[in-house]
Write a structure and sequence with these properties.
The protein has 92 residues and is α+β, with helices and mostly antiparallel strands. Helices cover 37% and strands 29% of the residues. It is built from two helices and six strands. The strands form two sheets. A four-stranded mixed sheet has the order 3-5-6-4. Strands 1-2 form a two-stranded antiparallel ribbon.
Length: 92
């Protein structure tokens, strides 16, 4: 099994295989998820003191805060997959 990492900003990465969702922190349900993770010691703050722009929900019940927009994080996954597929096709 290959490990794929997603850059969530400031040199921080999460395992792409473990990500359930990348969402905006604006809605009340997401704020509740973040608070519950904080209370349960499952919150990982990777914002370096900046404003939270994306919340990454992991399959391990951990919640990761990022200062990068959700679209940017998602595009990094898609671009990485496209590059991998191109490399695979070229090697065949």
């Amino acid at each position: 099994m290959e490990i794929k990492l997603i850059n969530i900003g400031f040199g921080n990465f999460v395992s792409a295989n473990r990500v359930i969702a990348i969402v905006s922190p604006e809605s009340a349900p997401i704020k509740r998820i973040v608070q519950e993770a904080r209370d349960g010691s499952r919150l990982i703050d990777a914002t370096y003191g900046r404003r939270t722009r994306a919340v990454v929900i992991m399959d391990s019940d951990h919640v990761v805060l990022s200062a990068v927009q959700p679209e940017t994080v998602a595009n990094r996954v898609i671009v990485d997959e496209d590059a991998k597929n191109r490399d695979k096709e070229e090697s065949e």
